[in-house]
Design goal:
Blueprint lengths: L14 H41 L8 E6 L4 E10 L2 E10 L2 E13 L2 E7 L9 E8 L3 E5 L8 E8 L2 E10 L2 E11 L2
Amino acid sequence: MYFRLHEQPGASVNCSLTSKMSFYIRFMRFFSRILSLFIPLVMLMSSCNSNKSQHDFDFSRLTGSWSSVNSEASQIEEWEALTDSTYAGRGFVLEGGDTTFLESLEIRKDHGVWTYYAKVNQMNGGETVPFRLTKQTHERVEFTNLSHDFPKKIGYELVSNNELQAYIEGPRDGQTIRILFDFKRNF
């Protein structure tokens, strides 16, 4: 590394090396001070980014089989991870050993936005209905499609690793209702 110093008239040539060393030492002190401020700033910014992901819902926690059983029927949802941004599922109701309801489900990240897709052959002309992610925390997630008749909202809350509460919400008979499903993980 070479530094060009401007010599003043009458300055001794022997001082040139000392001046270069003095400049170099001052430069290194200045540079180390800048680094001592810059490194903590970078660390703070990276910790902020990692904190954001701690508040995001981890869809892989939905994978597996879940059952909500009452005296009339069994509601079952099964999820599997296809990729880290696509989860395939199915939901069905068993009554007296017969499947009375079946839906195909998918949660997929499209253009940076998580979307829940539901398809029931007997409803909506067999078309898949999308619901966009509107709320999320580490434990809860909610998808919304305000243009759909019912439901307008679909949500999941992980109560624990083995308990899941799901809901559908929308208008019925002039008021908003929420139907809850308390699931337990099947082993």
